Structure formats: C-alpha cells, structure tokens
Amino acid sequence: MQDFFDAFQQAFALIASGDPELIGIVLLSLRVSLTALILACIIGFPIGALLAVSNFPGRRAIILFFNAAMGLPPVVVGLTLYLLFSQAGPLAVLELLYTPTAMIIAQIVLITPIIISLTRGTIAGLLAEHGETLRAMRATRPQMVMTLLREAHPALLTTAVVGLGRAFAEVGAVMIVGGNINHVTRVMTTSIALETSRGELAMALALGIILLIIALFTNAAVYALAPRSRELAHV
An example of a Gene Ontology BP annotation on this entry (predicted)? Predict the structure, then answer.
C-alpha cells in the first residue's frame, strides 16, 4: 500500500515539476489527436451534410457503412495501415510507418466515420425543419449544405468534441503504426501501457492523471454544448 501512495506522490511531483519527458509525450499526443480531429472534421462535415441533403442510388448503403465504421476495431485499422505502409506494402515509398503522420492517419480513419454519421443525423434533423424554406428559396445543394452547416455549428462542436475524445483514448492502432518509439511516436495511451508493463507506475499514473483531466474537460464540453444542440434540434 505504501508503494501505491509513493507512486501517486511521484506522479504528482512529475506533473508539478513539468518533467520534460512527460511534457513531450503530452504535447505529441495533443499534436497527433488535434491534427487528426481537424482533418477528420474537414472531411466528415461536408460528407455528412451531403448524405443528409442528397438522394441517390446507394445512399442508404453508404450511410450504413459509415454507421458500422463507427465501431471499427482499432487494432484492425492499425494492422491494415501497417500492411499498407510496411516495406512490402503498396505505400512503402511514402515511408510513413513508425511516424506521427501514420498515427494521425490511423486516428483519421477511426474518427471520420463518427464525424460523418453524427453530422448526417444533425443536418437531417435541420433539413426536416427548414428544407421547404430552402427549396422555396431555390437554394442549390451546395448552398443548402453550407447554410445547414452554419446553422448546426453548436451540434457540430459537440460532434468534434466526441471525435476528440475518441482520438485521445486510442491505443491499439497508433501503437501498431507508430511503434511507440521514445521521443518520436510515444503518446499518452501507449506510454501508459508501456510504463505499466515495466512497473514504472509513477510515469504511468502521471500520464493517466493528465489523460483523465483531458477526458473530464472533453466530457464537460460535451455536456455544456448538449443543451444548445437539443435546443437547435427543436427550432
């Protein structure tokens, strides 16, 4: 029990002192996850909105695909990307394996279906309320998409926060394609797994505390934005 309390004391000491290794891991985690989120939103928001306002053959199948992809197993995504980026893979020339870029791509693959599916649901709800008005104004499909995306921005912020939480929690895919290399691709989740296996509980706990704080702030943001999103849905 004493060792347990000592590990907690050392963990808080690492945080309070701004341990360089700890800060480096946290900053890399933030860079990877935030970059992946931004790119996933750039891809996912317009696709989700187009799926909501369009009607074409195969649309339902695409929607079902993205809904199913929300539950993609991270290790399967990591393995697939590993095979693509490895020396024997078709994308070996890019030399992305064991780099932060490969980790960002893995997180984009995992986050984008979430962004698309949640955006589609939000825009579909707004379209049911305002579609007739937009059609009466003879708005083109791109104009409808842009208008509805602007109207939906509180709910889209919630969607982005959900995606960010998913990115920060990821460990399997980023460990496979990143390799968990010290000072290169070691992020919070992979570091916690490594340090725990080595018995270095102080560093693992310090990273866990920081990750928990980020998760709490993320969930608090979702909770704060949710009432506005519900209000928007009933406008």
Answer: transmembrane transport
